[in-house]
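COMPLEX REQUEST
Ligand: adenosine-5'-triphosphate
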Amino acid sequence: MRLSRYFLPVLKENPSEAQIVSHRLMLRAGMIKQQSAGIYSWLPLGFKVLRKIENIVHQEQIRAGHIPMQMPTLQSADLWRESGRYDGYGEEMLRMQDRHGRDMLFSPTAEELFTDVFRAHVNSYKDLPLTLYQIQWKFRDEIRPRFGVMRGREFYMKDGYNFDLTKEDALHAYNRHLVSYLRTYERMGLQAIPMRADSGPIGGDDTHEFLVLAETGESEVFYDREITDLTFGEREIDYNSVEQCQAVLEEFTSRYARTDETHDEALFNEVPEERRCVARGIEVGQIFYFGTKYSEAMGAKVQGPDGKPTEVHMGSHGIGVSRLLGAIIEASHDDNGIIWPEGVTPFHVGIVNLKQGDEAADAACEALYNSFTAVGLEPLYDDRKERAGGKFATMDLIGLPWRITVGPRGLKNGVVELTSRRTGESVEMTPEQAVEKIIEIYAPHRVNVF
Ligand code: ATP
Ligand code: MG
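STATUS: Structure written out below.
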């Protein structure tokens, strides 16, 4: 992309309505525009990162054996009457009527719809295990939408639903989700800690929330410091292996880590004092096992091995896809702007031409641009006739992790400059070396569009 042709409405001033850094930077970097309280337009740069995050979520879900599909955002109230949640859900549910006076609602979550699809099409235990999921817009009429995309009213969420014959199978599905979530967040450059949580209106016994530590987080969290040393890393996992998934769950949930809702002071005090941490966190996902709650209410049964109809065991599992943009920025920024992790950056590399119109500089930038696009990498080339200072400020603000600076003086010696946004370090090298280096950096981060 050439910046002169792009739509990147960056703001010079700090927007006064933004209270936290991620909201401020998303507005300043021209990623979102508020349309009404908690409802946003996703401008091209924000949309691009949203898609990157979405694609990582898809890849990791599909890798775990879960099947993507899509549900409507508008649902009939009747299904929610069947499950008994229509009246109970409260003011957060946006309700409406169609022209025939039928009660409708904008989906805040989709247990009922998925259970309905399941009961319509699955009859035998032989079709299990089954986990279906979607990534779709949700609406919750939050009483206090705030912090930009972090607590919106309309937000983008991955929600997955497992259907299993037995409780043991459903707990394996739970563990599989836990593993796939660990991988997902790490690919986005995030540490998200599974913490024992409260099940709220979804209901159920087993549930963990995934929290990213950040001062601006809305949840108070209590944890054993040792848990922050854990990473999933590059290890291989067989998602069909009950033992392997169970071992990961145990590894990541055996130390004390709870949100304020389930915090137990006496248990916490058993952690050695120097390891006891109290902090704040952003909830970026949650997994639930809730047994037969919905299958009983909605008659989702399969014929079991003994020939008798039996209610399926279920769980639901969510990732806050749009909230993740805010969480990533909270975890990765400096005074000059965003610092995108390689896994989610909107463009792989920025090219800054220090002297637009200089024949050698223009040609070198074009050549770099073509080399990157030829291998499927996306450069953002600042080809505007602007001062170098302004170009650097824009690149820093929008946070591309790597920048190549091209100027007539360097080119006389055959070199350009490669700069890391994270460390600020610059190294001179030939343009060919810079291209090689960038290709090498992104080799583990290539996200194919789902
Ligand atoms: P919260 O406690 O933050 O209100 P929740 O527990 O009600 O969230 P879930 O039903 O668990 O939310 O939804 C799954 C994920 O969707 C959450 O972990 C969170 O990351 C995201 N999410 C929930 N509500 C919002 C919102 N209003 N805006 C943006 N993301 C949200
Ligand atoms: Mg939750």
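REMARKS: Residues 3-337 form a domain with the BirA Bifunctional Protein; domain 2 fold (CATH 3.30.930.10). The pocket of magnesium ion (ligand 2) is lined by residues 209, 283, 286 (CB under 6 Å).
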